[in-house]
Specification:
alpha+beta; five-stranded antiparallel beta sheet; four-stranded antiparallel beta sheet; binds flavin-adenine dinucleotide; binds iron/sulfur cluster
């Protein structure tokens, strides 16, 4: 690990000013915020990330979960994943979020991991984490060995010829189905970004994973008011029962009226280069009777544009079955 300066500001303005000195956008930048450290310190030990300055944001007053005036929920950036998953309001009104977080990592990691850190966590692609290998995400222009190499865990939706890495988050998949908004404070002021616009597709700049600019601090995430009568479920399929990233996962938030789907929000994990909201599946569901045939049709729609790599073609059928089963379970 390289040497670095460690600072611990007590207010957001100081933290933002210090971070704004970074000469690139946040991921891979020389000045970095650190929250739980469960992604960043791992990558520093591997020399994948080599910041010269770390700004510890754990002293900032960003650790609250509060109701909003419109009946939604405000989740502070440094709220620990465990606290969020076990919060009474989340378990009652946003169950899919609790289920998704509890399906991730381990109890110890969730006790450290934060809301913002989870949003900005990086891919688990093995080539990205190995500095002996080329990787366009880590070193733009160096190549993508995953495309002809080990890609069983990698993405089938949203890929490009430059990168096929999967976004590994479970929390973000539930947040996509719940239509969360990310609130950012930066040197030029504050802005709010719908989660669907927060993560970027790899395109020809896979090193750029989010819209964050130097100095941008995620302060909180908001969830809209809970949808009355919605049924929610998160299903994660993986190689072992716990402590493993998704091969495919599905978050569903669905409402029925007289046996038909009146509203549906669907997102997939483990298969996309970003948390993958499927408007195709949603459109296919609305107005249709809630039965297995229609759930399967929605899953077909969600995976219609999937592009398999040499080792991960199985994910197409797996993701279809995952979504079909999640819809069945939510509406049972
Ligand atoms: C062994 C292992 C297994 C795991 N399994 C899973 C899993 O199954 N599912 C899953 O979803 N996740 C899993 N994770 C990932 C884990 O959820 C993330 O590491 C964690 O959520 C990151 O949060 P953190 O607070 O520790 O982030 P940090 O490591 O502190 O930071 C991560 C990134 O976020 C940036 N950042 C942090 N806070 C802010 C902020 N407020 N504003 C702007 N940028 C910020 C940092 O600069 C850094 O780039 C696993 C991790 C490990 C190590
Ligand atoms: S898939 Fe992306 S992260 Fe993995 S080696 Fe290719 S460029 Fe790097």
């Amino acid at each position: 690990m390289n040497t670095f300066e460690f600072i611990r500001p007590s207010d957001s303005e100081t933290a933002i000013a210090a971070s704004a000195q970074a000469n690139t956008a946040q991921q891979g930048a020389d000045v970095r915020f650190v929250a739980g450290g469960t992604t960043l310190l791992d990558l520093m030990k591997l020399n994948v990330e080599t910041p010269s300055r770390l700004i510890d944001i754990n002293q900032l007053p960003l650790d609250k979960i509060e109701s909003t005036a419109d009946g939604g929920l405000r989740i502070g950036a440094t709220v620990r994943n465990s606290d969020l998953a076990n919060h009474a309001t989340v378990q009652r009104d946003y169950l899919v979020l609790s289920q998704a977080i509890l399906a991730g990592a381990s109890a110890q990691l969730r006790n450290m991991a934060t809301t913002a850190g989870n949003l900005v966590q990086r891919t688990r692609c093995m080539y990205f984490r190995d500095t002996a290998m080329p990787c366009n995400k880590r070193e733009p222009g160096s190549g993508c060995p995953a495309i002809t190499g080990a890609n069983r865990m990698l993405a089938i939706l949203g890929t490009s010829e430059h990168c096929i890495a999967t976004n590994p988050s479970d929390m973000c998949v539930a947040m996509a189905a719940l239509e969360a908004t990310i609130h950012i404070q930066g040197p030029a002021g504050s802005r709010a970004i719908p989660i669907g616009d927060f993560h970027l597709l790899p395109g020809d700049t896979p090193d750029r994973e989010t819209v964050l600019e130097p100095g941008d601090l995620i302060t909180h995430v908001t969830l809209p008011p809970p949808v009355v009568g919605s049924k929610q479920f998160y299903l994660k399929l993986r190689d072992r029962a716990s402590y493993e990233f998704a091969l495919a996962s599905a978050a569903v938030v669905i409402n029925l009226e007289d046996g038909k789907v009146s509203r549906a929000r669907v997102a997939l994990g483990g298969v996309g280069t970003k948390p993958w909201r499927s408007r195709e599946a949603e459109a296919s569901l609305v107005g249709q009777p809630a039965n297995q045939a229609n759930f399967r049709s929605a899953a077909e729609a969600a995976l219609r544009n999937a592009k398999p790599q040499s080792e991960n073609g199985f994910k197409i059928e797996l993701a279809k079955r995952c979504l079909t089963y999640a819809l069945q379970t939510a509406t049972a």
